[in-house]
Amino acid sequence: MTGALIAEQVLNGLQLGVMLFLMASGLTLVFGVMGLINLAHGSLYMVGAFACAAVAKATGSFWLGLAASLIGAAAAGALVEIAVIRRLYDRDHLDQVLATFALILVFSEATRWYFGSQPLYLSVPPLLAGPVMLPGGIEYPLYRLALIVAGLVVAAGLFVLIAKTRLGIRIRAGESDREMIAALGVDIAGLYTIVFALGAALAGLAGALVGTIQSVQVGMGEPVLILAFVVIVIGGIGSIKGALVGALLVGLTDTLGRFLLPIAFSSFMDASSATSVGSALASMAIYVLMAGVLVFRPSGLFGQAT
Amino acid sequence: MNREALASLVLAAGLLVVPLIALGLDDPFIVTLATKVAILALAGAGLNLALGFGGLVSFGHAAFFGLGGYAASILASHALNYEPVFVWPFEISGTTSMPVIWLVAMVAGAIAAAAIGALSLRTGGVYFIMITLAFAQMIYYFAISWPAYGGEDGLSIYVRDSFPGLNTLDPLQFFLICYVVLMVALAFCFVLTRSRFGLALQAARQNATRLAAVGIEPFGIRLMAFAISGAITALAGALYADLNRFVSPAMLNWHTSGEIMVFVILGGVGRIFGPVAGAALYIVLEHNLGGLTEYWQLPLGLLLLAVVLYARGGILGLVSRQVRHG
């Protein structure tokens, strides 16, 4: 085990973390502003990945595909918000869970029907292909490094959007008192559609970016959705800052757990059982982290006490 | 007799009569479908106790369903190989006796539910939904990556477990076992929800602060209800494993949690026979739509959306024409 190997795993953890942030920020924004729990967020991630793969295949350009993922996911999000989601804001969470669960079935089956069950593959654009040499002699894939940078740039952009722009002011006002800003003449229905589409676009972007290093297939959004839930439970629901901290914690815990636990167990076990015990426990590490946070802070690290 | 009670009687009688007629018409597959309805309704009845009566929206009941299934198949596989499950601190050997397996499954489900509940009930609302989901996924990933009991491939039960005095390999006799278990569980739920405990549980759903003010701590009531709910769903899991003679991590997957929830909501939340109506409709739809198109979950999803948006209260809510309060 060398320093370079550990550094590489830390970078992998950061990469997973920033991608989780793209998912979790949309979820937490939608919950914070509209009070809606959206299980279909993973489907929007899938829509983004499929839009990117289809357009990239048709035009040969990854960048056009990336634009398509943003537009496609935002459009799907806006459509779903207008058709279904807006009827759910004043319902209880049970109805929201069931309706968005139904939306997952619809999205998944429609995608399977249109694209088939075979996974699609996206290739890394030539500009970002190949490894890059980092200080300290670490060789790391340029594309993954670009993912980390892109995620951090989007995170910064989101903070600026929420803190500095007129839209951000309205979003924050909508979080604290929806009747009041409606009374002040803000088109609350339109604002909700915009917020939902924004969250959808972030999920779609994450789907397209991650789809390039994994495969693009039906059901790809669901494992990520559950990780994103863990992230916002740890960070505190409704808090963008919490989502960022939670996402990085979860990304690093998961990646380093999978890397370090088998090594730790091999110091007192034979290699094959150390691998199986280590990886079984590593798959539980983030949930243990979540349980630990809940014991000390039931409403998450940055959540408001309920 | 009100309309809901009448509908419940019709459901109970129908679930018993349909397989008998099917057997007379020499269509044994219907018996298997009816067995599946009975078992899934039992899983739903477990969830209904927490979700319908306690207001605890658990999205992690697949964990208990799967644990029950694994309890059945692990005990059966050890009995087949004549290997004890544990040798320390005391020896537990495998078994193929259903009553013993049911007991083990229910205890395992209750312990798991108590542990998950103790952490999740510290929070409420949307946190509770996500946390129960996350803990169920934890168990799912553990089952996938733990190779001792089949890992991702699952574990087979080579010969269906036995029940004293009955031949469980006969589809009708196995159906009757499941049917009786379901009816006993529903009767238990009926009595429980009308007991002091059940009234306190429903009071905790309607107004926890007021319940605390009259001197009953909601946390303990909810935790107990969650554990009982987990035990019932685990019992269903053990029967389901015996029906398929197979368990796999798919039983623990969150899709299973969603389906169990769908049975409850489709049938009618907080109504004793709601899960029976929901599971029956779901299985009929799956069987018929699945024959028409490979993409049967698309119309199912649209139907669910329609139920949530326009038919609140589910099937029994429609039939009884009564809004349930609180």
Record the SSE blueprint.
The complex is a heterodimer of chains A (306) and B (326).
Chain A (H helix, E strand, L loop, with lengths): L2 H32 L6 H19 L2 H22 L9 H23 L15 E4 L3 E4 H23 L1 H11 L1 H6 L4 H24 L9 H15 L4 H27 L4 H12 L2 H12 L10
Antiparallel strand pairs in A: 1-2
Chain B lengths: L2 H22 L3 H26 L7 H21 L2 E3 L5 E2 L4 H23 L4 H21 L9 E2 L14 H23 L2 H11 L1 H6 L4 H27 L1 E2 L6 H14 L6 H19 L4 H14 L3 H7 L6
Antiparallel strand pairs in B: 1-2, 3-4
Helix pairs in contact in B: 1-2, 1-6, 1-13, 2-6, 2-9, 2-10, 2-11, 3-4, 3-5, 3-9, 4-9, 7-9, 10-11, 10-13
In short:
The complex is a heterodimer of chains A (306) and B (326). With 306 residues, chain A is mainly alpha-helical.
Provide structural commentary.
The complex is a heterodimer of chains A (306) and B (326). Chain A has 306 residues and is mainly alpha-helical. Chain A has one domain: ABC transporter involved in vitamin B12 uptake, BtuC (Orthogonal Bundle), CATH 1.10.3470. A two-stranded antiparallel sheet of chain A has the order 1-2. In chain A, helix 1 packs parallel to helix 5, helix 1 runs antiparallel to helix 10 and helix 10 runs antiparallel to helix 11. Chain B is mainly alpha-helical and 326 residues long. Chain B has one domain. Helices cover 72% and strands 3% of the residues of chain B. Chain B is built from 13 helices and 4 strands. In chain B, strands 1-2 form a two-stranded antiparallel sheet. In chain B, a hairpin with a 5-residue loop joins strand 1 and strand 2. The mean pLDDT of chain B is 88. At the A-B interface, helix 4, helix 9, helix 11 and helix 12 of A face helix 5, helix 10 and helix 12 of B.
